[in-house]
Design a protein that fits this description.
The chain has a five-stranded parallel β-sheet with strand order 2-1-3-4-5, sandwiched between helices. The two termini are 33 Å apart. The chain is globular and about 50 Å long. The N terminus is likely disordered. It has one domain: SGNH hydrolase (Rossmann fold, 3-Layer(aba) Sandwich), CATH 3.40.50. By secondary structure, the protein is of the alpha/beta class. The chain is built from twelve helices and five strands.
């Protein structure tokens, strides 16, 4: 029997709500009330790889709230909801995701693409290339180096912006397309590392992989991300919804 829309929303909400609490890494726990972290006048920055990049236009990158500059992915969908819900809040939202990047590439461009923007809220989704490129023989990183370098990047950020509100997103894959069973359990080590980075820093943790695992019980993985990595429009919508719930909106 096909799942109903009501059952889908209920299942997603259960997975989303609990893990949104700072530092939590508990798929399937009960709903937790999360305080809204987005304040009037906040500069909000989305960072990451191609999933965040989502074809964003570089020429308009310095223009906040510009749809072309925010791309066509979850960052834009989440941003559009924030700007619609709070039109008078003077939010300034940027996207600096770059396709193919791993944690070391983030670190190399961090001054220009993060600290110089003086974000009040920083959301980072990074990790799938850290394993994918190693599997392709183009990178020698490990889950341990991923966690070490990620922690160093967050420490550098906190030193420059002590009051910054951090949102650490769980890297995710779906078992289809380029992703095979032999990605596991190694990929789980990257997920766990990201959760520890969030926990150590008191950051909000967005449980993308956990939510996609729940969603894949209700529709095939290809429905959410045909190649197992890059979300479809439906996966993009689910990511945006998950992110917004995690930050209390």
């Amino acid at each position: 029997m096909k799942p109903s829309r009501r059952n889908f929303l209920a299942t997603s909400a259960a997975a989303i709500g609990a893990a949104a609490a700072a530092g939590a890494f508990r798929a399937g726990a009960s709903q937790v009330e999360v305080k809204n972290i987005i304040n009037e006048g906040d500069v909000i920055l989305f960072q990451g790889d191609s999933i965040t990049d989502a074809g964003r236009e570089r020429e308009t990158a310095d223009q906040p709230n510009n749809q072309k500059a925010l791309g066509s992915g979850y960052a834009w969908v989440a941003s559009s909801h924030m700007l619609l819900a709070r039109p008078a809040a003077d939010l300034r939202i940027f996207n600096r995701g770059i396709s193919g990047h791993k944690v070391p590439q983030l670190a190399a461009r961090w001054d220009a693409d993060c600290l110089d923007l003086k974000p009040d809220v920083l959301s980072v989704l990074i990790g799938v290339n850290d394993i994918w490129h190693r599997r392709n023989g183009n990178y020698e990183g490990t889950p341990e180096s991923y966690e070490r370098d990620y922690l160093a990047l967050v420490e550098r950020t906190r030193n420059a912006r002590p009051r910054i509100k951090l949102v650490i997103c769980e890297p995710f894959v779906l078992r289809c397309g380029a992703v095979t069973d032999d990605w596991f359990p190694e990929f789980d080590a990257y997920r766990t590392a990201a959760a520890r980075v969030a926990e150590v820093n008191g950051a909000i943790f967005v449980p993308f992989h956990s939510v996609f695992e729940e969603a894949s019980k209700l529709a095939p993985p290809e429905h959410w991300a045909a190649d197992g990595v890059h979300p479809s429009p439906f996966g993009t919508a689910l990511m945006a919804r998950t992110w917004l719930r995690a930050v209390g909106l």
